[in-house]
């Protein structure tokens, strides 16, 4: 069978932009995230809030190449970038004082990808 990649138009645009930024700024992080997003949906990452809480400290910037789920609690402010979030995940991140943003927004804010952790 021929590989087709994601059929979601927004996701395809995100992957294209991340690859472009990776080439332009010579950063490997956005290329790695784009490659993770190209995988089939059933292989894409799903990360709970509790894991983000465990592996970060206050003020960290985190990228999840997939979906952020709302299981668990978070007790410090973190900026989380992902393709999608559950409603409870967004609520818990914002209650803790953090931000939930799309991956492309983070890539445009920080094209060099400095001080960004990939979790998942």
What is the terminal-to-terminal distance?
28 Å
User: What CATH first level would be assigned?
Assistant: Alpha Beta
Which spans have pLDDT < 50 for at least 5 consecutive residues?
Answer: none
Q: Can you give the helix content as a percent range?
A: 40-55%
- Compute the gyration radius: what is it? 14 Å
Give me the count of strands.
Answer: 5
- The domain tally reads 1
The CATH architecture assignment turns out to be: Ribosomal Protein L15, Chain: K, domain 2
How large a portion of the residues is in β-strands, by DSSP E? 15-25%
Outline the biggest β-sheet: 5 strands, parallel
Counting H and I runs of at least 4 residues, what is the number of helices? 5
Q: Structural class of the helices, strands and pairings?
A: alpha/beta
Sequence of secondary-structure elements: HHEHEEHEHE
CATH topology name, in short, is: Ribosomal Protein L15, Chain: K, domain 2
**General shape:** globular
Give the averaged pLDDT, no decimals: 94
GO molecular function, one term: RNA binding
Keywords: Ribonucleoprotein, Ribosomal protein
Family: Belongs to the eukaryotic ribosomal protein eL18 family.
Domain Large ribosomal subunit protein uL15/eL18: 8-118
